[in-house]
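Section 5: illustrative case.
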């Protein structure tokens, strides 16, 4: 299990660095014949290796994806790292998506195809120079096709592609922010209490015997997602009087520390990675590739998950 997590994290880090170049250099030369086969994002494709900003605009506001150094980040999430999965698919669309067939233009069609406020406008830039601006509407009945409208034209088109475009900005950050399968956990420490076990099929034991709640805490911490992210310079720990520290130690020697912050209204989490004195070699590699995603970052949890982590004891 840990080996699979390590391999996935290494691939994720590599993809984050090489994502733009890899997706743009792909070439799809078999365009459909029903229209002139023009790329929907032709200018973006042409200057693809210089693409450095993508803005998604919907009724819920803007989501700004920016390329900084070797990574893509989400401006609205305090410039935290973008989801490689969603971004990679978007870049593939820029490279491959074509105009398939034209639909007669009318205001009724604009509304019906959700090319109004219900759609999502994708705008691409290279050093603030506009490349393309296209509104993506609802999916067509035929799988793999969507309705679209170039922002500056009175045209409605059926286009091909895979446009998975969440409207919430936090969906575009790397999710989950933490994934720690309970079967990997050997020991849990909360304040002055420690529970541990000898192997993954055993229950957790503390000073008073078997801990019935340890598995509940391990399960609550196994898959953590965020609703917002703040960098350390924009987060005030003193504004959150209630704090809790949970340390998970895996059988491989990885220590994952959850530092929770709450004011009874919102819940935030800081994650720290470290090792036991004699960890497996793979643990050091895991930390090397993943430390950048945690150092100096605070993650806002959902109220439900935040409360669960706070109230569950061992």
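Designed sequence:
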């Amino acid at each position: 299990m840990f080996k699979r997590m390590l391999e996935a994290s290494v691939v994720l880090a590599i993809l984050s660095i090489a994502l733009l170049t890899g997706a743009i250099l792909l070439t799809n030369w078999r365009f459909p014949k029903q229209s002139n086969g023009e790329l929907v994002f032709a200018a973006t494709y042409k200057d693809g290796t210089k693409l450095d900003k993508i803005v998604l605009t919907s009724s819920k506001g803007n989501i700004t994806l920016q390329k900084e150094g070797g990574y893509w980040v989400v401006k609205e999430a305090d410039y935290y790292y973008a989801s490689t999965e969603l971004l990679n698919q978007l870049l593939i669309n820029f490279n491959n998506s074509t105009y398939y067939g034209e639909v007669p233009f009318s205001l009724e069609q604009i509304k019906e195809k959700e090319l109004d406020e219900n759609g999502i406008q994708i705008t691409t830039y290279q050093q603030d120079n506009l490349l393309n601006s296209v509104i993506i509407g609802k999916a067509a009945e035929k799988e793999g096709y969507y309705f679209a409208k170039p922002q500056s034209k009175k045209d409605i088109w059926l286009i091909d592609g895979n446009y998975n475009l969440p409207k919430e900005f936090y969906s575009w950050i790397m999710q989950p922010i933490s994934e720690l399968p309970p079967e990997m956990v050997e020991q849990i420490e909360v304040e002055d209490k420690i529970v541990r076990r000898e192997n993954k099929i055993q229950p957790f034991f503390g000073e008073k015997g078997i801990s019935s709640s340890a598995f509940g805490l391990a399960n609550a911490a196994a898959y953590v997602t965020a609703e917002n992210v703040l960098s350390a310079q924009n987060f005030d720990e003193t504004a959150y009087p209630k704090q809790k520290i949970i340390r998970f130690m895996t059988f491989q020697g990885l220590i994952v520390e959850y530092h929770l912050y709450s004011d009874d209204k919102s819940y935030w989490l800081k994650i720290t990675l470290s090792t036991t004195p004699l960890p497996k070699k793979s643990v050091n590699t895991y930390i090397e590739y993943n430390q950048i995603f945690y150092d100096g970052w605070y993650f806002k949890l959902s109220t439900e998950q935040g409360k669960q982590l706070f109230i569950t004891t061992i």
